[in-house]
Amino acid sequence: MPNAPFSRRDIILAASALTAGAALTEPLKAAAIAPRGDSDPSTSWADPAMPGVTHRIVATNGIRLHVAEQGEGPLVMLCHGFPECWYSWRYQLPALAKAGFRAVAPDLRGYGRSDRPEDVEKYTILHNIGDMVGLIDALGATQAVIAGHDIGAPIAWQAALMRPDRFRAVIALGPPFRSRGFGDLGPPTTHMPRSRTALFYQLYFQKPEAEAALGNDPRRMFRSLFYSLSGDGAPPAGGGGLTAGMIPLNGEFLTNPASLPSWIRESDVDVYVDEFARSGFRGAVNWWRNVDRGWELMAPFADTPVTVPALYLAGDRDIIAAIFRQAIAQQSALVPKLRRAVMLPGCGHWTQQERAPEVNVAMIDFLRRLPAAGSA
Fold it and tell me: What's residue 43's pLDDT?
Protein backbone atom coordinates (compact mmCIF):
# COMPACT_ATOMS: atom_id res chain seq x y z
CA MET A 1 0.00 0.00 0.00
CA PRO A 2 1.42 3.38 -0.90
CA ASN A 3 2.58 5.62 1.92
CA ALA A 4 0.38 8.58 0.95
CA PRO A 5 -1.96 11.07 2.68
CA PHE A 6 -5.38 9.72 3.61
CA SER A 7 -7.88 9.61 0.79
CA ARG A 8 -11.44 10.77 1.28
CA ARG A 9 -12.47 7.12 1.18
CA ASP A 10 -10.11 6.20 4.03
CA ILE A 11 -11.37 9.11 6.14
CA ILE A 12 -14.97 8.03 5.59
CA LEU A 13 -14.00 4.44 6.40
CA ALA A 14 -12.38 5.46 9.66
CA ALA A 15 -15.23 7.72 10.63
CA SER A 16 -17.86 5.08 9.98
CA ALA A 17 -16.04 2.48 12.04
CA LEU A 18 -15.46 4.88 14.93
CA THR A 19 -19.04 6.10 14.85
CA ALA A 20 -20.31 2.53 15.01
CA GLY A 21 -17.93 1.83 17.85
CA ALA A 22 -19.14 4.82 19.82
CA ALA A 23 -22.68 3.73 19.53
CA LEU A 24 -8.99 -27.43 35.65
CA THR A 25 -9.93 -28.38 32.45
CA GLU A 26 -11.18 -31.74 31.27
CA PRO A 27 -11.16 -32.62 27.54
CA LEU A 28 -14.28 -31.30 25.91
CA LYS A 29 -16.36 -32.92 23.22
CA ALA A 30 -16.67 -31.20 19.88
CA ALA A 31 -19.43 -28.62 20.01
CA ALA A 32 -22.75 -29.46 18.42
CA ILE A 33 -24.13 -26.37 16.73
CA ALA A 34 -27.66 -25.60 15.67
CA PRO A 35 -28.47 -24.10 12.25
CA ARG A 36 -27.55 -20.45 11.96
CA GLY A 37 -31.05 -19.05 11.39
CA ASP A 38 -30.02 -16.25 9.02
CA SER A 39 -33.48 -14.71 8.91
CA ASP A 40 -33.69 -14.19 12.66
CA PRO A 41 -30.87 -12.26 14.40
CA SER A 42 -32.28 -13.24 17.80
CA THR A 43 -31.82 -16.96 17.19
CA SER A 44 -30.25 -18.70 20.18
CA TRP A 45 -29.61 -22.28 21.10
CA ALA A 46 -28.02 -24.37 23.82
CA ASP A 47 -24.94 -26.43 23.16
CA PRO A 48 -25.53 -30.05 24.21
CA ALA A 49 -21.83 -30.85 23.84
CA MET A 50 -20.82 -28.04 26.21
CA PRO A 51 -23.40 -27.77 29.01
CA GLY A 52 -23.94 -24.19 30.11
CA VAL A 53 -22.81 -22.63 26.83
CA THR A 54 -25.44 -20.72 24.88
CA HIS A 55 -25.06 -19.64 21.26
CA ARG A 56 -26.85 -16.80 19.54
CA ILE A 57 -26.66 -14.32 16.70
CA VAL A 58 -26.23 -10.70 17.82
CA ALA A 59 -26.65 -7.56 15.72
CA THR A 60 -23.76 -5.10 16.11
CA ASN A 61 -22.08 -2.40 14.00
CA GLY A 62 -24.24 -3.11 10.96
CA ILE A 63 -23.49 -6.85 10.87
CA ARG A 64 -24.39 -9.97 12.83
CA LEU A 65 -21.93 -11.83 15.01
CA HIS A 66 -22.28 -15.34 16.35
CA VAL A 67 -21.37 -15.50 20.03
CA ALA A 68 -20.94 -18.30 22.53
CA GLU A 69 -21.52 -17.30 26.14
CA GLN A 70 -21.55 -18.78 29.60
CA GLY A 71 -21.96 -17.46 33.13
CA GLU A 72 -23.27 -14.37 34.85
CA GLY A 73 -21.43 -11.39 36.28
CA PRO A 74 -18.96 -8.83 34.93
CA LEU A 75 -18.57 -9.17 31.17
CA VAL A 76 -15.39 -10.64 29.67
CA MET A 77 -15.13 -10.67 25.87
CA LEU A 78 -12.80 -13.19 24.23
CA CYS A 79 -11.46 -12.44 20.72
CA HIS A 80 -9.98 -15.40 18.86
CA GLY A 81 -7.06 -15.46 16.45
CA PHE A 82 -6.31 -16.69 12.91
CA PRO A 83 -7.39 -19.14 11.65
CA GLU A 84 -9.66 -19.92 14.59
CA CYS A 85 -13.14 -19.26 15.96
CA TRP A 86 -14.99 -19.00 19.28
CA TYR A 87 -14.09 -22.63 20.03
CA SER A 88 -10.50 -21.63 20.78
CA TRP A 89 -11.84 -20.34 24.14
CA ARG A 90 -13.65 -23.59 25.00
CA TYR A 91 -11.61 -24.01 28.20
CA GLN A 92 -11.97 -20.41 29.34
CA LEU A 93 -15.76 -20.15 28.97
CA PRO A 94 -16.62 -22.58 31.79
CA ALA A 95 -13.67 -21.53 33.97
CA LEU A 96 -14.62 -17.86 33.84
CA ALA A 97 -18.28 -18.67 34.39
CA LYS A 98 -17.47 -20.74 37.46
CA ALA A 99 -15.37 -17.85 38.79
CA GLY A 100 -18.35 -15.49 38.59
CA PHE A 101 -17.92 -13.83 35.21
CA ARG A 102 -20.00 -13.63 32.06
CA ALA A 103 -17.71 -14.95 29.34
CA VAL A 104 -18.59 -14.21 25.71
CA ALA A 105 -16.59 -15.53 22.75
CA PRO A 106 -17.67 -14.15 19.36
CA ASP A 107 -16.73 -15.34 15.92
CA LEU A 108 -15.00 -12.27 14.46
CA ARG A 109 -16.44 -10.81 11.27
CA GLY A 110 -15.63 -13.13 8.39
CA TYR A 111 -15.43 -16.22 10.61
CA GLY A 112 -17.80 -19.05 11.45
CA ARG A 113 -21.45 -18.06 11.68
CA SER A 114 -20.75 -14.33 11.80
CA ASP A 115 -21.45 -12.19 8.76
CA ARG A 116 -18.85 -12.02 6.01
CA PRO A 117 -19.00 -8.65 4.23
CA GLU A 118 -17.98 -8.86 0.59
CA ASP A 119 -15.85 -5.69 0.51
CA VAL A 120 -12.24 -6.40 1.47
CA GLU A 121 -12.02 -2.95 3.05
CA LYS A 122 -14.65 -3.93 5.63
CA TYR A 123 -12.01 -5.88 7.55
CA THR A 124 -9.85 -3.16 9.10
CA ILE A 125 -8.96 -3.15 12.77
CA LEU A 126 -11.39 -0.25 13.25
CA HIS A 127 -14.25 -2.40 11.99
CA ASN A 128 -13.34 -5.10 14.50
CA ILE A 129 -13.16 -2.55 17.32
CA GLY A 130 -16.54 -1.16 16.28
CA ASP A 131 -17.96 -4.69 16.38
CA MET A 132 -16.71 -5.20 19.94
CA VAL A 133 -18.02 -1.85 21.20
CA GLY A 134 -21.40 -2.55 19.62
CA LEU A 135 -21.38 -6.03 21.13
CA ILE A 136 -21.18 -4.57 24.65
CA ASP A 137 -24.38 -2.64 23.94
CA ALA A 138 -26.07 -5.62 22.28
CA LEU A 139 -25.35 -7.70 25.37
CA GLY A 140 -26.97 -5.09 27.61
CA ALA A 141 -23.74 -4.09 29.36
CA THR A 142 -21.89 -0.80 29.71
CA GLN A 143 -18.33 -2.11 30.12
CA ALA A 144 -16.28 -5.23 29.51
CA VAL A 145 -12.82 -6.66 29.98
CA ILE A 146 -11.54 -7.56 26.53
CA ALA A 147 -9.15 -10.42 25.90
CA GLY A 148 -7.54 -11.41 22.62
CA HIS A 149 -5.25 -14.05 21.18
CA ASP A 150 -3.21 -13.73 17.98
CA ILE A 151 -5.01 -11.13 15.78
CA GLY A 152 -7.54 -10.80 18.61
CA ALA A 153 -4.76 -9.29 20.74
CA PRO A 154 -4.18 -6.12 18.67
CA ILE A 155 -7.96 -5.75 18.44
CA ALA A 156 -8.14 -5.97 22.24
CA TRP A 157 -5.17 -3.67 22.82
CA GLN A 158 -6.44 -0.94 20.51
CA ALA A 159 -10.04 -1.25 21.71
CA ALA A 160 -8.83 -0.63 25.27
CA LEU A 161 -6.67 2.25 24.09
CA MET A 162 -9.41 3.98 22.10
CA ARG A 163 -12.36 3.27 24.38
CA PRO A 164 -11.21 2.96 28.00
CA ASP A 165 -14.73 4.05 28.96
CA ARG A 166 -16.07 0.78 27.53
CA PHE A 167 -13.14 -1.59 28.08
CA ARG A 168 -12.01 -1.42 31.70
CA ALA A 169 -9.10 -3.82 31.29
CA VAL A 170 -7.32 -5.83 28.61
CA ILE A 171 -5.76 -9.29 28.44
CA ALA A 172 -3.48 -10.12 25.51
CA LEU A 173 -2.14 -13.53 24.53
CA GLY A 174 0.74 -13.61 22.05
CA PRO A 175 1.13 -10.20 20.35
CA PRO A 176 2.37 -7.45 22.68
CA PHE A 177 1.10 -3.88 22.60
CA ARG A 178 2.41 -1.87 19.64
CA SER A 179 1.62 1.73 18.83
CA ARG A 180 -0.89 2.11 15.99
CA GLY A 181 -1.67 -1.58 16.32
CA PHE A 182 1.08 -2.61 13.93
CA GLY A 183 4.11 -0.60 15.08
CA ASP A 184 5.50 2.82 14.25
CA LEU A 185 8.13 1.97 11.66
CA GLY A 186 5.93 2.52 8.63
CA PRO A 187 3.49 0.47 6.54
CA PRO A 188 3.82 -3.02 8.05
CA THR A 189 4.23 -4.89 4.77
CA THR A 190 7.30 -2.84 3.85
CA HIS A 191 9.17 -4.36 6.80
CA MET A 192 8.14 -7.99 6.31
CA PRO A 193 10.86 -10.38 5.13
CA ARG A 194 10.75 -11.93 1.69
CA SER A 195 13.13 -13.81 -0.57
CA ARG A 196 13.18 -15.31 -4.03
CA THR A 197 11.64 -18.50 -2.68
CA ALA A 198 9.55 -17.53 0.35
CA LEU A 199 7.33 -14.83 1.85
CA PHE A 200 6.59 -13.84 5.42
CA TYR A 201 3.28 -15.48 6.31
CA GLN A 202 1.37 -12.18 6.54
CA LEU A 203 2.43 -11.32 2.99
CA TYR A 204 1.55 -14.77 1.75
CA PHE A 205 -1.96 -14.64 3.22
CA GLN A 206 -2.63 -11.48 1.20
CA LYS A 207 -2.21 -13.39 -2.06
CA PRO A 208 -5.35 -14.65 -3.85
CA GLU A 209 -4.02 -18.20 -3.94
CA ALA A 210 -3.75 -18.28 -0.13
CA GLU A 211 -7.48 -18.94 0.21
CA ALA A 212 -7.26 -21.97 -2.05
CA ALA A 213 -4.11 -23.25 -0.35
CA LEU A 214 -5.72 -23.02 3.09
CA GLY A 215 -9.03 -24.50 1.96
CA ASN A 216 -7.73 -27.28 -0.26
CA ASP A 217 -7.37 -29.74 2.61
CA PRO A 218 -8.59 -28.04 5.83
CA ARG A 219 -8.01 -31.05 8.05
CA ARG A 220 -4.39 -31.36 7.01
CA MET A 221 -3.98 -27.59 7.33
CA PHE A 222 -5.31 -27.43 10.89
CA ARG A 223 -3.43 -30.54 12.01
CA SER A 224 -0.26 -29.07 10.54
CA LEU A 225 -0.67 -25.64 12.13
CA PHE A 226 -1.72 -26.95 15.53
CA TYR A 227 1.33 -29.21 15.65
CA SER A 228 4.05 -27.13 14.01
CA LEU A 229 3.25 -23.86 15.83
CA SER A 230 2.75 -25.47 19.22
CA GLY A 231 5.32 -26.08 21.90
CA ASP A 232 5.26 -29.72 20.80
CA GLY A 233 6.44 -28.96 17.27
CA ALA A 234 10.03 -29.60 16.22
CA PRO A 235 12.21 -26.45 16.01
CA PRO A 236 12.81 -25.30 12.44
CA ALA A 237 15.95 -26.59 10.76
CA GLY A 238 18.29 -23.70 10.06
CA GLY A 239 15.75 -21.15 11.24
CA GLY A 240 13.50 -21.63 8.19
CA GLY A 241 10.04 -22.92 7.46
CA LEU A 242 6.64 -22.03 8.84
CA THR A 243 7.83 -21.91 12.44
CA ALA A 244 10.15 -19.07 11.40
CA GLY A 245 7.23 -17.22 9.82
CA MET A 246 8.20 -17.90 6.20
CA ILE A 247 6.07 -19.70 3.64
CA PRO A 248 7.52 -21.10 0.39
CA LEU A 249 6.21 -19.39 -2.73
CA ASN A 250 5.09 -22.75 -4.03
CA GLY A 251 2.61 -22.80 -1.15
CA GLU A 252 3.77 -26.19 0.12
CA PHE A 253 4.14 -25.36 3.79
CA LEU A 254 1.89 -27.95 5.42
CA THR A 255 3.00 -31.13 7.10
CA ASN A 256 0.76 -34.00 8.16
CA PRO A 257 1.87 -35.03 11.65
CA ALA A 258 1.40 -38.66 12.59
CA SER A 259 -0.34 -37.61 15.80
CA LEU A 260 -1.65 -34.46 17.42
CA PRO A 261 -0.27 -32.85 20.58
CA SER A 262 -1.92 -34.01 23.78
CA TRP A 263 -3.80 -30.73 24.25
CA ILE A 264 -5.95 -31.13 21.13
CA ARG A 265 -7.94 -34.04 19.76
CA GLU A 266 -9.24 -35.05 16.35
CA SER A 267 -12.76 -34.14 17.50
CA ASP A 268 -11.51 -30.61 18.22
CA VAL A 269 -10.06 -30.42 14.72
CA ASP A 270 -13.48 -31.51 13.44
CA VAL A 271 -14.99 -28.31 14.85
CA TYR A 272 -12.49 -26.07 13.06
CA VAL A 273 -12.88 -28.00 9.81
CA ASP A 274 -16.67 -27.69 9.99
CA GLU A 275 -16.56 -23.98 10.80
CA PHE A 276 -14.29 -23.14 7.88
CA ALA A 277 -16.18 -25.43 5.52
CA ARG A 278 -19.07 -23.07 6.22
CA SER A 279 -17.24 -19.74 6.10
CA GLY A 280 -14.29 -20.35 3.81
CA PHE A 281 -11.03 -18.46 4.38
CA ARG A 282 -11.69 -15.23 2.49
CA GLY A 283 -12.96 -13.26 5.49
CA ALA A 284 -10.11 -14.57 7.63
CA VAL A 285 -7.31 -13.56 5.25
CA ASN A 286 -8.94 -10.18 4.62
CA TRP A 287 -7.46 -9.08 7.98
CA TRP A 288 -3.97 -9.46 6.48
CA ARG A 289 -5.04 -7.60 3.34
CA ASN A 290 -5.82 -4.60 5.54
CA VAL A 291 -2.76 -4.37 7.80
CA ASP A 292 -1.29 -1.38 5.94
CA ARG A 293 -4.66 0.34 5.81
CA GLY A 294 -5.18 -0.34 9.50
CA TRP A 295 -1.79 1.16 10.27
CA GLU A 296 -2.73 4.29 8.29
CA LEU A 297 -6.09 4.67 9.98
CA MET A 298 -4.55 4.35 13.44
CA ALA A 299 -2.23 7.32 12.86
CA PRO A 300 -4.18 9.64 15.22
CA PHE A 301 -3.41 7.23 18.08
CA ALA A 302 0.35 6.93 17.58
CA ASP A 303 2.21 6.77 20.91
CA THR A 304 -1.06 6.92 22.85
CA PRO A 305 -0.82 4.86 26.06
CA VAL A 306 -3.21 2.15 27.20
CA THR A 307 -4.48 3.55 30.48
CA VAL A 308 -6.47 0.57 31.77
CA PRO A 309 -5.04 -2.41 33.70
CA ALA A 310 -3.45 -4.99 31.40
CA LEU A 311 -2.26 -8.59 31.51
CA TYR A 312 0.08 -10.13 28.93
CA LEU A 313 0.67 -13.86 28.46
CA ALA A 314 2.70 -15.77 25.89
CA GLY A 315 4.41 -19.09 25.36
CA ASP A 316 8.18 -18.97 25.33
CA ARG A 317 8.08 -21.12 22.16
CA ASP A 318 5.51 -18.98 20.39
CA ILE A 319 6.66 -17.67 17.01
CA ILE A 320 5.02 -14.36 17.95
CA ALA A 321 7.16 -14.06 21.07
CA ALA A 322 10.25 -14.60 18.94
CA ILE A 323 9.26 -12.08 16.27
CA PHE A 324 8.24 -9.38 18.75
CA ARG A 325 10.79 -10.00 21.50
CA GLN A 326 11.85 -6.34 21.55
CA ALA A 327 8.26 -5.07 21.61
CA ILE A 328 7.46 -7.37 24.53
CA ALA A 329 10.36 -5.92 26.51
CA GLN A 330 9.34 -2.33 25.74
CA GLN A 331 5.54 -2.46 25.88
CA SER A 332 5.26 -1.33 29.51
CA ALA A 333 6.39 2.15 28.44
CA LEU A 334 2.99 2.66 26.78
CA VAL A 335 1.05 0.34 29.11
CA PRO A 336 1.73 1.80 32.56
CA LYS A 337 -0.74 -0.51 34.33
CA LEU A 338 0.68 -3.68 32.78
CA ARG A 339 1.21 -6.52 35.21
CA ARG A 340 4.37 -8.60 34.99
CA ALA A 341 4.27 -10.67 31.80
CA VAL A 342 3.37 -14.33 32.17
CA MET A 343 5.70 -16.41 29.99
CA LEU A 344 4.69 -20.06 29.81
CA PRO A 345 7.63 -22.48 29.50
CA GLY A 346 7.39 -24.92 26.61
CA CYS A 347 4.19 -23.34 25.30
CA GLY A 348 3.84 -22.47 21.64
CA HIS A 349 1.40 -20.27 19.75
CA TRP A 350 -1.96 -21.75 20.84
CA THR A 351 -1.66 -20.30 24.32
CA GLN A 352 -5.10 -20.73 25.90
CA GLN A 353 -5.49 -24.20 24.41
CA GLU A 354 -2.00 -25.52 25.14
CA ARG A 355 -1.87 -24.23 28.71
CA ALA A 356 -5.51 -23.87 29.65
CA PRO A 357 -5.12 -24.36 33.44
CA GLU A 358 -2.31 -21.81 33.76
CA VAL A 359 -4.06 -19.30 31.48
CA ASN A 360 -7.32 -19.69 33.39
CA VAL A 361 -5.61 -19.12 36.74
CA ALA A 362 -3.77 -16.03 35.48
CA MET A 363 -6.87 -14.53 33.87
CA ILE A 364 -9.11 -15.11 36.88
CA ASP A 365 -6.53 -13.76 39.32
CA PHE A 366 -6.16 -10.62 37.19
CA LEU A 367 -9.93 -10.18 36.84
CA ARG A 368 -10.56 -10.55 40.57
CA ARG A 369 -8.02 -7.83 41.35
CA LEU A 370 -9.70 -5.25 39.12
CA PRO A 371 -11.87 -2.44 40.49
CA ALA A 372 -15.57 -3.27 40.47
CA ALA A 373 -17.24 -3.18 37.07
CA GLY A 374 -19.65 -0.38 36.28
CA SER A 375 -22.46 -2.57 34.97
CA ALA A 376 -22.44 -5.91 33.22
Answer: 79
